[in-house]
Amino acid sequence: MDSPLISLVVPVYNTEKYVEKAVRSVLAQGFDDWELLLVDDGSTDGSGAVCDALAGEDERIRVFHQPNGGVSSARNLALDQARGRFLCFLDSDDTLDSTFFEKMLAMQAQAGSVPVCCGFDWQEAHETNQPARPLPSKRVSLDDFLFEALIGRLGLPLCCVTWLIPAETALRQRFDESLGYGEDSLFLMQVLLHYREVWYDPQPLYRYLTERDGNTVTERSLKKSASRYRSLEKTLALCRGQLPKTEQVLIKHLVECAAEAARRARREGKQKEYKSYKKLCLDWWKQLSRCKDISGKDRLRLLAYGLSPCLSEKMMMKIYGRV
Q1: Same domain, 18 and 157
Q2: pLDDT tens-digit readout, 64-116
Q3: Has residue 217 been placed in a domain?
Q4: 192, 198 in Cβ contact below 8 A?
Q5: Do 249 and 296 have their domain in common?
Q6: Where are the beta strands (DSSP E) in 130-196?
Q7: Does residue 304 share a domain with residue 171?
Q8: What is the pLDDT of residues 217-260, one digit of tens each?
Q9: How far is residue 242 from each of residues 8, 41, 195, 283, 316, measured CA to CA in Å?
Q10: Cα of 26 vs its chain's centroid, Å
């Protein structure tokens, strides 16, 4: 097969009930110059067989099987095999809008050589939610985009699945296999730092499934919080001296993540880890106190996180219903 325009990477692990729907959403695309790389990461259900059967239907689907190594390992295998000019990602329990490729390429034609990002939706209680919000301009500086996304004003998670990325940049990067969570945002940051601008249009072209058992979006554990913390540390190290506004909001997230890890450690009876993350929370807050783009209200709230992670959680839940 000749080199396709788009390589779509899908890691697969124990999603037998969902992966066919994900692949069917790719087959339903109006644009057809693509390859689909399915990486069965040592699934113990029938996911691998489903992938093989789907590959038998269409030569654009290529399947790879490997012993379980985690989602980063699976994606890295696909990066080694990708042949397209552009790269995008899909999780095996999510789906794409039938116009995903067509509209992302239309954005890319307007954007030129920079990466493009779309919005998403999800189903909850029989209602469709489309939380991603626009910016005044679709072409935006990287520092401004990342600040708005990370501060929470866009309603958009910073992860690789809503992006179309030039392969010449993306294929030089690899996912960090030491991370179980936060690996996709770190990978995305490694890619985006090669550009000064991005193109962002919040139209919902990616569809999340959030209610599956075992979905990492809803998982709560010290293991997850600790991995997210390491990812944020590494991301901040990449941004130092390059993206001043993004640096500040990453420090804010490190305070929040350290506090969350401390709470999880306390719930799991791990006192040593609790004390360690509480100290880290306060250490990062000292840096946050000098961040001019973080509101005084946020700095005061996060000081409470550092002084007493568990008590501050109770107070926030009582006042706002969330942390």
Answers
A1: yes
A2: 999 999 999 999 999 999 999 999 999 999 999 999 999 999 999 999 999 99
A3: no
A4: yes
A5: yes
A6: 139-141, 163-166
A7: no
A8: 556 799 999 999 999 999 999 999 999 999 999 999 999 999 99
A9: 30, 36, 11, 22, 34
A10: 20
